[in-house]
């Protein structure tokens, strides 16, 4: 086991081991649990940084273990994987702090943090999967580890949401399994290779189209593509940290990441275009973008509005992937990071409003800016980013997507982007208006004397930091290790080799 | 100690242990643990011996067949003896905590004789010897099922007894016809001759019918759920995990070697019965309101999967044969763990009605996670052994182009997810029974170890298949 | 019809007769009787079907008879305890699921 | 003399029919006790059949275990059952 | 509806009977001539009667498992809750006592004769065991309680003896001879007799205990 093989496993272990230990810790051991969590998160960040530095200099980190004849469990930290791993590691660190603060006195925290760590392990596993079978393995592990988090509160609503979540995700898992098995039967291999391995495999194109449909349907459930998105809004019943990390970053991104892997590393984007499947994907993505934004308009509950916004935003990634062209690909891939940063900030702020002042509805947010200025400032930065205003990160991704669409001659996509940006504005600006320019209607408890911050530090710092990251990602887009540059590196190395 | 003398030891050791268990009024717990661990050691030695030679044989009494009886072990027997040997000590550990006094003594005696019969069956190379081992297995299973049970357990055991005897007699009639036509009872001498024999088809039909009844396969499964649901946890674990597998193993031996996978109609019939079993019994499991009945119906459903794999062996070869073995091995581990865990829940709640399971996940976290892990394997979710089996089964079904089988496999997986999560969901909520008895820790650890190994075996797919070797 | 063949055919007929009785019987004792007759019929086919004075089936049938009596004894004891002293704790007729 | 040579097949046929009849009566009579009695008779006739098939060991075993002991067990069971409820079909 | 079901069932079984009858009377040419094999190796089997040779030497392994089956049946019966004795027990009739006094010695004698004769003529442990068991049951019915007391205390020792000796012989032959139940031709006769006599005792005790299980007489398990 050389050092290059050990590193991917170590990254997985930094969240798996603390998770398993936490399961067996007694409920009361709060400090030990927090230390374990944070230590795990920090070590993961360090290891990811090492790998980032290594991969950018051409190192290769991979480990594989034969499961069955012709089937290997393989982890490979290529440039695309690291993009997602870095995002997950950073946001897991922040969300852990947030969760410790948020769940101060609630029961079942040992179970919560145990499954929380398992879930991050699954997400990192999905990112670093070297072939479709390892991807499927961690994809299903993600389903299993997120179910207890969705039903964490054990209320009837939580269990109903959990059952619906299972119905969708296990159904999706079955479709993905069938697609994978059929693909293996047709092509004999499942290893992700740049520009795909399906082209010369002799399988007939209708079969490959059917396989593509099955695979995308499987991952589409978690990427919340329109017909398969039903579980996301209802899963908002979960506690805020769960909605923040899982339904903004881990779960939906795993789905979007799956689409990227399938289109680029299984079929190869040119061959997929030949098959005509990318047009179908683009259509579904476009419909989802518009549909998600429209439904978000109608939601009064803040978290449900954010949920529908996630449904539409994730499909930007799918759209970027579906439009054949380097610029659109960069736009789609970089949006994976940007949307994560922005959406987690929004969910953090929503959690703060609910936890500190008990506000759940958009209509209740009048004048919240005065009472909780920092949280609302972070909310504003993220909201404007979502709309796509410079200099926030959202602008970068929409800019590339627009250029890509024009370059590929898909002018209709430009209209979709413009229309959805307008819709974003339509459902975010009223919130900002209420928060800053309206007088508070309800009488909230004033900030307790002698306490400087508007709410607990553990709840306040994460959204502020992520808001800063949104700004930095936008302003310093062209700096060497920024998400945009890294996405460009990914696209250049993975998809358009000379 | 030569490899061939390992085979008789695998039978003598548990039988002697069982006899001692019945004779000695005290010390049943340590005896049970000691003998079952010794049995595991012998099983590992057999696997080691087989790794080199590929086949081990021992002619009893030194008489050559057709006069004497031959004991033979190939890859499949070694795998099954190994997995049964691995489960036995954990069931023993659980029983030594769950039982005491008279009940522990009879459980120790009967369970070890049951284990001896099982080992004897997996290495028997003679048709009549298989009948006697099947009968010994059936009777000890019936006695175990009735052990300490109430009226419902007695009624279920009586029906189990009648079903297992009828199955054995139908099998024996088939053996009689084969002996009449060939003059020998030895499997090796009979291999490949089956189809051409006068009355060979009738004999095969009788034997298959008998074995399907003894294995409680779908249309003939009526006696299993009450018997397994009303027995005590370690007994229902032993019955569901081990007892119902022996007739299926025998069916595989007869069909693949003696009848050389003859008559495609048989393959289609087995596939149809298997598919119907998977769908109907998974549905029944979903509808159950008692946890143990749910798990018992899940057993019959999983047997349907095994039949599907068996039906595909002649057409799909090694993939289906590997699927059969991996599905069987992971079902043994997962079902034993699941029954023990559900037994813990029922013992704590005082009943096994699903809606009455109170806040179990707080007070029995190990059992709740055992249910989850066992469920992962039963659903065929990666990275479990169940997934490996399901994957190979899918490959076999796609290779032979049976798309309706692919659909059945996937729908079966979804239904399994429904009833497993029905179990898991009930451990998440509800009120709490303050005075519930605390369970000895080792009962929970036994369940968790079994369930975790069902998932762990997912990473041992390659060595298991290498040990298994080619289709007989 | 030589002696052997006649008994072999008798065995076959008895097998089906006892199988029919086993299925329609209601009282468990009657089912045990049917199973015993079925066992005897299989043994008849075994010995009558094989060669004249062939000692192998004879030895096997002796083993079979002992196994049959063991199973019958176990079945009867289950049956008697099933009937049980109190009349009312008979198993509920509608076994769910079967 | 030829008639004598006809004796064995006739005896076999007669025995076979007798066996079928006793079995039929044992399995289908309404009351349990007569059923057990017919079963014991069936066992005895079967012992005769084993003698005709030149299997003395089996005849002994059938008489001693099949008819004798199984009969005793069944009789004891019926006696105990009859003490409680009327005979059921 | 029930009548239709029965009619269909009857029809099906008639067809099955026809098929079985046809299959059973098919002309066959068995490849192996088993009686010849047995006759050939009878000399080394230690007994001259072929059936006993098969039962205890050529296929002794089956017989060992069969004795274990009897043991399992006994354990299955004993582990159930004991049944109260029948209410109408009452005094033992004079005729029964006389019959018992007359029959018991005969039964025991015949049983032992069968055991001894098994080596050369039809007979053997199982038939002898059954007769001895019948004698035991008759003794109990005739009210011989002294015999019952012995049975109660030493039940498992007596019942387990047959299988114990058989296992010991099997283990011995495996350790020294290298093959399970490989009885050396010279001592085969003696070994078979030893096995058969202990088996006789165990079978008798087991059959009596199984009969006791039906609650004819109260049983006090330690």
TrEMBL record, chain A:
<feature type="transmembrane region" description="Helical">
    <location>
        <begin position="409"/>
        <end position="429"/>
    </location>
</feature>
<keyword id="KW-0472">Membrane</keyword>
<keyword id="KW-0560">Oxidoreductase</keyword>
<keyword id="KW-0830">Ubiquinone</keyword>
<protein>
    <submittedName>
        <fullName>NADH-ubiquinone oxidoreductase chain L</fullName>
        <ecNumber>1.6.5.3</ecNumber>
    </submittedName>
</protein>
<dbReference type="GO" id="GO:0005886">
    <property type="term" value="C:plasma membrane"/>
</dbReference>
<feature type="transmembrane region" description="Helical">
    <location>
        <begin position="165"/>
        <end position="185"/>
    </location>
</feature>
<feature type="transmembrane region" description="Helical">
    <location>
        <begin position="80"/>
        <end position="100"/>
    </location>
</feature>
<keyword id="KW-1133">Transmembrane helix</keyword>
<feature type="transmembrane region" description="Helical">
    <location>
        <begin position="456"/>
        <end position="479"/>
    </location>
</feature>
<feature type="transmembrane region" description="Helical">
    <location>
        <begin position="271"/>
        <end position="294"/>
    </location>
</feature>
<keyword id="KW-1003">Cell membrane</keyword>
UniProtKB/TrEMBL annotation, chain B:
<comment type="similarity">
    <text>Belongs to the CPA3 antiporters (TC 2.A.63) subunit D family.</text>
</comment>
<keyword id="KW-1133">Transmembrane helix</keyword>
<feature type="transmembrane region" description="Helical">
    <location>
        <begin position="6"/>
        <end position="24"/>
    </location>
</feature>
<dbReference type="InterPro" id="IPR003918">
    <property type="entry name" value="NADH_UbQ_OxRdtase"/>
</dbReference>
<feature type="transmembrane region" description="Helical">
    <location>
        <begin position="262"/>
        <end position="281"/>
    </location>
</feature>
<dbReference type="GO" id="GO:0005886">
    <property type="term" value="C:plasma membrane"/>
</dbReference>
<feature type="transmembrane region" description="Helical">
    <location>
        <begin position="445"/>
        <end position="465"/>
    </location>
</feature>
<feature type="transmembrane region" description="Helical">
    <location>
        <begin position="235"/>
        <end position="256"/>
    </location>
</feature>
<keyword id="KW-0472">Membrane</keyword>
<feature type="transmembrane region" description="Helical">
    <location>
        <begin position="319"/>
        <end position="343"/>
    </location>
</feature>
<protein>
    <submittedName>
        <fullName>Putative, Na(+) H(+) antiporter subunit D</fullName>
    </submittedName>
</protein>
<feature type="transmembrane region" description="Helical">
    <location>
        <begin position="403"/>
        <end position="424"/>
    </location>
</feature>
From TrEMBL, chain C:
<keyword id="KW-0472">Membrane</keyword>
<feature type="transmembrane region" description="Helical">
    <location>
        <begin position="58"/>
        <end position="80"/>
    </location>
</feature>
<comment type="similarity">
    <text>Belongs to the CPA3 antiporters (TC 2.A.63) subunit C family.</text>
</comment>
<feature type="transmembrane region" description="Helical">
    <location>
        <begin position="6"/>
        <end position="26"/>
    </location>
</feature>
<dbReference type="GO" id="GO:0005886">
    <property type="term" value="C:plasma membrane"/>
</dbReference>
<dbReference type="InterPro" id="IPR050601">
    <property type="entry name" value="CPA3_antiporter_subunitC"/>
</dbReference>
<keyword id="KW-1003">Cell membrane</keyword>
<protein>
    <submittedName>
        <fullName>Putative, Na(+) H(+) antiporter subunit C</fullName>
    </submittedName>
</protein>
<keyword id="KW-1133">Transmembrane helix</keyword>
<dbReference type="InterPro" id="IPR039428">
    <property type="entry name" value="NUOK/Mnh_C1-like"/>
</dbReference>
<feature type="transmembrane region" description="Helical">
    <location>
        <begin position="33"/>
        <end position="52"/>
    </location>
</feature>
<dbReference type="Pfam" id="PF00420">
    <property type="entry name" value="Oxidored_q2"/>
</dbReference>
TrEMBL record, chain D:
<feature type="transmembrane region" description="Helical">
    <location>
        <begin position="31"/>
        <end position="53"/>
    </location>
</feature>
<keyword id="KW-1133">Transmembrane helix</keyword>
<dbReference type="InterPro" id="IPR025383">
    <property type="entry name" value="MrpA_C/MbhD"/>
</dbReference>
<keyword id="KW-0812">Transmembrane</keyword>
<keyword id="KW-1003">Cell membrane</keyword>
<protein>
    <recommendedName>
        <fullName>MrpA C-terminal/MbhD domain-containing protein</fullName>
    </recommendedName>
</protein>
<keyword id="KW-0472">Membrane</keyword>
<feature type="transmembrane region" description="Helical">
    <location>
        <begin position="59"/>
        <end position="79"/>
    </location>
</feature>
<dbReference type="Pfam" id="PF13244">
    <property type="entry name" value="MbhD"/>
</dbReference>
<feature type="domain" description="MrpA C-terminal/MbhD">
    <location>
        <begin position="18"/>
        <end position="82"/>
    </location>
</feature>
<dbReference type="GO" id="GO:0005886">
    <property type="term" value="C:plasma membrane"/>
</dbReference>
<feature type="transmembrane region" description="Helical">
    <location>
        <begin position="6"/>
        <end position="24"/>
    </location>
</feature>
């Amino acid at each position: 086991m050389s050092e290059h093989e050990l590193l991917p496993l170590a990254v997985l272990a930094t969240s798996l081991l603390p998770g398993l230990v936490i399961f067996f810790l007694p409920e009361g051991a709060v400090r030990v649990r927090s230390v374990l969590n944070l230590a795990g998160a920090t070590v993961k960040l360090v290891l990811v940084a090492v790998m980032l530095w290594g991969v950018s200099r051409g190192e290769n980190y991979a480990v594989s273990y034969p499961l069955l004849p012709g089937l290997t469990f393989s982890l490979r930290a290529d440039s695309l994987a690291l993009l997602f791993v870095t995002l997950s590691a950073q946001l897991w660190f922040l969300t852990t702090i947030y969760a410790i603060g948020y769940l101060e006195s609630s029961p079942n925290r040992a179970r919560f943090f145990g499954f929380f760590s398992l879930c991050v392990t699954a997400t990192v596993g999905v990112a670093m999967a070297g072939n479709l079978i390892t991807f499927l393995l961690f994809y299903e592990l993600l389903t299993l580890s997120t179910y207890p988090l969705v039903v964490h509160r054990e209320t009837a609503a939580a269990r109903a949401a959990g059952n619906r979540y299972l119905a969708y995700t296990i159904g999706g898992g079955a479709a993905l399994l069938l697609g994978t098995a059929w693909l293996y039967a047709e092509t004999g291999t499942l290893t992700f290779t740049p520009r795909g391995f399906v082209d010369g495999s002799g399988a007939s194109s209708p079969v490959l189209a059917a396989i593509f449909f099955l695979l995308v349907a499987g991952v589409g459930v978690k990427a919340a593509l329109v017909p398969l998105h039903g579980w996301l809004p209802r899963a908002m019943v979960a506690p805020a940290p769960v909605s923040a990390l899982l339904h903004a970053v881990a779960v939906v991104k795993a789905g979007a990441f799956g689409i990227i892997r399938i289109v680029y590393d299984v079929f190869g984007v040119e061959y997929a275009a030949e098959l005509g499947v990318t047009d179908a994907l683009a259509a579904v993505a476009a419909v989802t973008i518009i549909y998600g934004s429209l439904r978000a308009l109608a939601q009064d509950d803040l978290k449900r509005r954010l949920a529908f916004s996630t449904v539409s935003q994730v499909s930007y990634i799918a759209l970027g992937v579906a439009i054949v062209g380097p610029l659109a690909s960069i736009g789609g891939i970089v949006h994976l990071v940007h949307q994560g940063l922005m959406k987690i900030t929004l969910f953090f702020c929503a959690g703060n409003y609910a936890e500190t002042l008990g506000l759940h509805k958009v209509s209740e947010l009048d004048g919240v800016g005065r009472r909780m200025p920092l949280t609302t400032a972070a909310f504003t930065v993220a909201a404007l980013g979502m709309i796509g205003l410079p200099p926030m990160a959202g602008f970068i991704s929409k800019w590339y997507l627009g250029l890509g669409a024009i370059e590929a001659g898909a002018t209709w996509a430009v209209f979709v982007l413009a229309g959805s940006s307008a819709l974003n504005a339509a459902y975010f600006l009223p919130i900002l208006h209420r928060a800053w320019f309206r007088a508070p209607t309800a009488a909230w408890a004033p900030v307790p004397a002698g306490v400087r911050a508007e709410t607990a530090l553990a709840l306040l710092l994460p959204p502020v930091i992520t808001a800063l990251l949104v700004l930095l990602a936008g302003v310093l887009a062209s700096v060497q290790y920024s998400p945009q540059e890294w996405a460009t590196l990914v696209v250049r190395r993975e998809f358009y080799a000379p | 100690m030569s490899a061939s003398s390992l085979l008789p030891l695998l039978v003598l050791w548990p039988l002697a242990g069982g006899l001692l268990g019945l004779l000695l009024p005290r010390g049943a717990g340590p005896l049970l643990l000691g003998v079952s661990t010794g049995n595991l050691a012998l099983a590992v030695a057999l696997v080691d011996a087989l790794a080199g030679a590929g086949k081990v044989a021992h002619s009893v009494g030194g008489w050559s067949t057709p006069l004497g009886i031959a004991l033979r072990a190939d890859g499949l027997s070694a795998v099954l003896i190994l997995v049964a040997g691995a489960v036995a000590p954990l069931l023993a550990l659980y029983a030594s905590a769950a039982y005491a006094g008279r009940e522990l003594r009879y459980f120790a005696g009967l369970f070890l004789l049951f284990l001896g019969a099982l080992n004897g069956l997996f290495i028997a190379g003679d048709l009549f010897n298989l009948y006697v081992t099947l009968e010994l297995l059936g009777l000890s299973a019936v006695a175990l099922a009735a052990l300490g049970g109430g009226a419902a357990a007695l009624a279920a055991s009586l029906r189990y007894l009648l079903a297992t005897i009828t199955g054995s007699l139908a099998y024996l009639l088939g053996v009689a016809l084969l002996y009449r036509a060939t003059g020998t009872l030895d499997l090796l001498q009979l291999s490949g001759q089956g189809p051409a024999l006068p009355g060979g088809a009738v004999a095969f039909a009788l034997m298959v019918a008998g074995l399907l009844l003894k294995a409680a396969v779908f249309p003939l499964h009526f006696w299993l759920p009450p018997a397994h649901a009303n027995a005590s946890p370690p007994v229902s674990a032993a019955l569901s995990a081990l007892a119902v597998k022996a007739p299926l193993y025998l069916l595989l031996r007869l069909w693949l070697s003696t009848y050389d996978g003859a008559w495609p109609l048989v393959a289609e019939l087995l596939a149809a019965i298997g598919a119907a079993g998977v769908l109907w019994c998974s549905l029944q499991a979903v509808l159950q309101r008692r946890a143990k009945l749910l798990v018992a119906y899940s057993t019959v459903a999983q047997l349907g999967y095994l039949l599907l794999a068996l039906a595909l062996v002649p057409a799909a070869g090694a993939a289906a044969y590997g699927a059969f073995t991996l599905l069987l091995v992971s079902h043994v581990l997962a079902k034993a763990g699941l029954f023990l865990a559900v037994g813990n829940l029922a013992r704590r709640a005082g009943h096994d009605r699903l809606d009455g399971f109170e806040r179990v996940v707080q007070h029995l976290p190990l059992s709740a996670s055992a249910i989850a892990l066992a469920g992962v394997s039963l659903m065929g979710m990666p990275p479990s052994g169940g997934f490996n089996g399901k994957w190979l089964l899918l490959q076999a079904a796609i290779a032979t182009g049976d798309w309706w089988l692919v659909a059945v496999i996937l729908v079966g997986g979804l239904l399994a997810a429904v009833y497993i999560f029905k179990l898991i969901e009930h451990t998440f909520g509800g009120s709490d029974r303050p005075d519930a008895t605390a369970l000895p820790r080792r009962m929970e650890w036994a369940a968790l170890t079994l369930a975790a190994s069902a998932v762990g075996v997912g990473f041992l797919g390659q060595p298991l298949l290498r040990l298994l070797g080619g289709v007989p | 019809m030589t002696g052997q063949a006649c008994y072999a055919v008798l065995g076959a007929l008895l097998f089906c007769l006892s199988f029919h009785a086993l299925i329609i019987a209601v009282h468990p004792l009657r089912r045990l009787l049917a199973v015993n007759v079925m066992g005897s019929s299989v043994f008849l086919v075994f010995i009558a079907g094989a060669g004249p004075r062939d000692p192998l089936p004879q030895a096997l049938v002796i083993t079979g008879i002992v196994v049959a009596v063991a199973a019958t004894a176990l079945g009867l004891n289950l049956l008697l305890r099933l009937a049980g002293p109190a009349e009312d704790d008979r198993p509920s007729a509608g076994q769910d699921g079967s | 003399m030829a008639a004598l040579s006809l004796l064995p097949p006739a005896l076999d046929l007669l025995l076979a029919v007798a066996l079928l009849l006793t079995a039929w009566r044992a399995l289908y009579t309404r009351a349990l006790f007569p059923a057990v009695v017919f079963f014991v008779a069936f066992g005895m006739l079967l012992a005769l059949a084993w003698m005709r098939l030149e299997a003395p060991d089996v005849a002994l075993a059938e008489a001693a275990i099949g008819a004798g002991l199984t009969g005793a067990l069944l009789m004891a069971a019926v006696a105990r059952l009859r003490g409680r409820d009327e005979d059921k079909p | 509806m029930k009548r239709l079901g029965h009619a269909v069932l009857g029809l099906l079984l008639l067809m099955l009977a026809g098929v079985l009858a046809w299959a059973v009377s098919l002309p066959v040419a068995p490849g192996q001539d088993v009686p010849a094999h047995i006759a050939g190796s009878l000399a080394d089997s230690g007994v001259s009667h072929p059936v006993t040779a098969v039962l205890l030497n050529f296929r002794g392994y089956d017989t060992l498992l069969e004795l274990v089956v009897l043991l399992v049946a006994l354990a299955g019966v004993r582990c159930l809750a004991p049944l109260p004795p029948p209410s109408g027990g009452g005094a033992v009739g004079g005729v029964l006592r006389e019959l018992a006094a007359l029959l018991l010695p005969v039964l025991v004698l015949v049983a032992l004769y069968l055991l001894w004769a098994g080596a050369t003529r039809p007979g053997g442990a199982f038939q002898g065991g059954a007769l001895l068991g019948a004698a035991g049951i008759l003794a109990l019915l005739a009210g011989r309680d002294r015999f019952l007391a012995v049975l109660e205390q030493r039940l498992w020792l007596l019942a387990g003896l047959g299988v114990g000796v058989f296992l010991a012989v099997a283990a011995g032959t495996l350790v020294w001879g290298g093959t399970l139940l490989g009885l050396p031709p010279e001592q085969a006769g003696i070994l078979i007799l030893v096995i058969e006599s202990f088996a006789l005792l165990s079978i008798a005790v087991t059959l009596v205990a199984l009969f006791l299980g039906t609650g004819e007489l109260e049983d006090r398990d330690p």
